Structure formats: structure tokens, C-alpha cells
Ycf51 family protein (Calothrix parietina FACHB-288), 173 residues
Amino acid sequence: MLTTADFLQYTQWSGIATLVFAALTVLGLIFKWGIRFRLVGTTGFMLVLTGGLFALSLVPLSRTVIPGAVRYSLIYDNGSTQAVIAIAPNITPSALEATLRQAASNLYSYGRLGSKNDNYLTIRARTLIHPEPGLTVPLYLGQVKRTLTQREDPQMAVEIYPEKFAQLPKAAA
């Protein structure tokens, strides 16, 4: 995974390329080259690219890794207070708890909007089961609630539904 130091290095190289294109653009305008307007566009693009790389060098792009967490897919996120992740049906309760904690950390953002009544992000974990051929049923195995106001939430509430685990298909031996 790329680090902020990598993006800073890319920013430096992109900045040098931007200066080269700017110099070529000035020469093209002075000597009325046929590609002078293309050089103006290229220089503008390089300025935008350099600015984007610089922004990425300031913001850490790291994900939290919680031991015991399994892979999940984000399947619903309203950008505010609710999200749903999909997990495999063979997950254990301890792995589900770790996965919910990891999802709560990874999905936290300062840009999420809370309301007056609900200033918490609720992430629900679900899997799909097939009780009979041709029928697929979503089964919610747990949820986590975390505050939207703090990056590190000591009051994070993880709920696991043990009665739902009983409905999961047994693994073939």
C-alpha cells in the first residue's frame, strides 16, 4: 500500500514535470508553435495532478487492522448513520466481533452527518442463507454502534446475536 511518503515523492516528480511543461508552454507561446494550446492544456492538467498528489501526501491512507477480523464487503452505506457489511456464512462470533470493530474504524469519517436524535454510526453485519432451493434470506448476525464525533470511540457497543448463529448452515464434515 502506498504511504504518504510515496505520494510526496510522486508530488516532487510531478512538480518537476509541471515546471518543464510550463517552460515549454511559454516557449510555444513566444515562438507560436502549432502545439502551443495543447501545451497549455497539458500544463493545466499537470497542475491539477500535482495538487492531487500533494493532497494525498498530507492525508494518511491507512486502514485499521484488528487481529481476528475477516474480509467483508460494504453493501450499503447511506453516508450518514447506517451501513451494512456482508460476511461469509462460516464466520465465528469472535471473528464477527473483530470484523465489526474493524469496519467501525474503517468506515469512520469526519464527513458523516448525524442528526439531533442519532449521532451514532450503526453498522450491521449480514450474510445470506439458503433455507431451501431457490430461496435466499438475509440473516443479520450482529451490529456495532459508534459515535460520529470522535475518531477513537471507547464507548463502541458491539452486539452479537447468538440465536442467529444457530440458523447458519452447519459445515459439511
Summary: Residues 128 and 134 are 12 Å apart (CA to CA). The chain is about 40% helix and 25% strand. The longest helix spans residues 4-30.
